[in-house]
Write a structure and sequence with these properties.
The chain has 13 helices and 17 strands. Strand 1 and strand 2 form a beta hairpin. The radius of gyration is 21 Å and the shape is globular. The structure holds pyridoxal-5'-phosphate (PLP). Pyridoxal-5'-phosphate binds next to helix 4.
């Protein structure tokens, strides 16, 4: 049994069923009101403290109350210019773009404000490129079974969640979903009509499925052969989550486009589209735009976060601790009938369970651990990338208690 100095108040957690309708109730919230955070720990209004294995759904890679982020924010305030619009040159956005380009396959970056926006923008850019190189019909986009790319119109059409899609039909046209099967993809990838395939190298919301390097290699070969762009949605699995700065670095596969968001600006809203020179060359002024994207304030903070997440020592720790977490979860699965399967890499893990995952989350909250689901029967762990081995071990202990 691993113990951590987690201070637990004796009061039961406050139920907040009385939620006001002032905020549109599209989320069923946990009955917890967060008031403070420190490291991997969150503190609630009722005095309880929790080990956080949600990271704000993959955002808070550097945990809470990080001194470096606080300094970067103070520095970003010094100019007095929070926003300028993209009509002006601005050094912080350029510095961030140059850092992303220097550290990746990409030659250009477009900044936006969220993951769905990054994917929507990527769809436009690959269509622009497709028509340029292949003619008017080359515009189709293919996504994968189990994928999640956002809930705006084009991204919803690429997101494989029937309950999210059904109320909003008709969905955006020219976007379809294929099985995770190279044979089917080969049949669907018509060089005249298909502009791009989008995949999450590690599917997050769809149950934490790590796409095999062999599958990604075969998909890369197929997309090259048919002159189809390959987009990696790294909104959840990118920026260190797998133990590699970019998830594509885990494999030999280099995509044409990568989308990023969640942890990029340390909790401030920001997304990015990274692309090759060939795709960038097809884009003309006016083809896409954003009022807020890449502003000086958010870019200054994001540059700090990106530099920290690029640290080889941090990435090596995520790989080592992540491998250890995987072994611990598999050992837990071997002694608990409630666990059917364990999947993951680095600091993203999915645990298939025999009981509704929501019930296990509720028991874990009582034990002081916050987790997520990824489907009705999958528990998902997204610890902050700064979580120590001791914190991971404590989390596994609490998860075991929650299973009982
Ligand atoms: C892989 C992936 N893509 C896109 C999105 C959408 O991001 P956002 O909620 O910032 O629009 C998410 C959100 O969970 C995601 O996990």
């Amino acid at each position: 049994m691993t113990t951590l100095p987690v201070v637990m108040a004796s009061t039961p957690s406050t139920q907040r069923d009385d939620e006001s309708l002032a905020i549109l109730p599209v989320y069923k919230r946990f009955p917890v009101e967060i008031v403070r955070g420190e490291g991997s720990r969150l503190f609630a209004a009722d005095g309880r403290s929790y080990l956080d294995f949600t990271s704000g759904i993959g955002v808070n890679a550097l945990g809470y109350n990080d001194a470096g982020i606080a300094d970067a924010i103070r520095g970003a305030l010094e100019s007095g210019v929070l926003h300028t619009s993209n009509l002006f040159h601005s050094a912080p956005g350029l510095a961030l773009a140059e850092a992303l380009v220097a550290r990746s396959f990409a030659s250009s970056v477009f900044f936006c404000n969220s993951g769905a926006e990054a994917n929507e923008g990527a769809f436009k850019l690959v269509r622009r490129w497709g028509r340029e190189v292949g003619g008017a019909d080359k515009h189709e986009i293919i996504a994968l079974r189990g994928g999640f790319h956002g809930r705006l119109f084009a991204t919803l059409a690429a997101t494989d969640r029937p309950q999210y899609r059904a109320p909003f039909r008709p969905l955006a046209a020219g976007i379809s979903i294929a099985e995770r099967d190279i044979g089917e993809l080969s049949r669907m990838l018509d060089r005249e009509t298909v502009a791009a395939v989008i995949v999450e190298p590690v599917q997050g919301e769809g149950g934490v499925r790590v796409l095999e390097p062999a599958f990604l290699n075969a998909l890369r070969a197929l997309t090259r052969e048919r002159n189809v762009a390959l987009i990696f949605d790294e909104v959840q699995c990118g920026l260190g989550r797998t133990g590699w700065l970019f998830a594509y670095e885990r494999t030999d596969v280099v995509p044409d486009v990568v989308t990023l968001a969640k942890p990029l600006a340390g909790g401030l809203p920001m997304g990015a589209i990274l692309m090759t020179a060939e795709i960038a060359a097809a884009v003309q002024p006016g083809d896409h735009g954003t009022t807020f994207g890449g502003g000086p304030f958010v870019s200054t903070v994001a540059k700090h976060v990106f530099d920290r997440l690029s640290d080889p020592a941090l990435l090596a720790r995520v790989r080592e601790n992540g491998a250890w977490l995987g072994e611990s979860l598999r050992a837990l699965a071997a002694r608990r009938d409630e666990i059917r399967a364990v999947r993951g890499v680095g600091y993203i893990w999915g645990i298939d369970v025999t009981r509704p995952a929501g019930e296990i989350l509720a028991s874990a909250r009582e034990a002081g651990l916050l987790m997520l689901t990824a489907g009705d029967y999958t528990v998902r762990l997204l610890p902050p990338l700064i979580a120590t081995r001791e914190e991971l071990a404590y989390g596994v202990d609490q998860l075991e208690k929650a299973l009982s």
